[in-house]
Amino acid sequence: MNKLKAAYDAIQERRIESLEQLLREDLALLNSQTPFGPLLHVAAGAGNLEALKLLLSCGADIDARGGTFGGDALNYAASKAHVEVCKFLLSQGAKFDVSEPERNALFSAIYVGSTELAELFIEYGIDYSVAYTGQSMTNMDARAFAIERGQKEVLAVLLTQ
Questions:
Q1: What are the ANK repeat spans here (predicted)?
Q2: Nearest to 94 by CA among 142, 102, 103
Q3: Which of 36, 56, 61, 74 measures 20 to 30 Å from 91, CA to CA?
Q4: Number of helices (H) and strands (E), helices first, in the chain?
Q5: Would you tell me which CATH number, out of the four given (3.40.50, 1.20.140, 1.25.40, 3.30.980), belongs to the domain 96-160?
Q6: Nearest to 39 by CA among 64, 2, 17, 70
């Protein structure tokens, strides 16, 4: 079996010992790209906090980009509403990428309707006023996106700012 696929499976199946063994055998796996980004993204998307801790302790780049939209692990965790993973990543120094709406963790939180994540990201200083113009939006900031998505509870959080 391909080692990268084996590492991916170990993360998804929460087999930390297997992941640790694979990384001992081939540390280059740490920054290898899967279709979802590096293994850190896979762990973030799976909500696998143990795997995240292991990968970071081995030297994974907390702000590495990859996957479909070239985002980071924080945005990927937010898109799956993994609050504890987002808290952990922020506590370890993850930075917000607001360069594109697809990479904006607050937009991901709005998309999944997570008031808890919206509050967390605001607490950690995300720029919620940044506005985007592109194919599907014109001068759209977080509040406008919450309105468009019908996320009234998240909008209420944003309006208190």
A1: 40-67, 69-101
A2: 103
A3: 36
A4: 10, 2
A5: 1.25.40
A6: 64
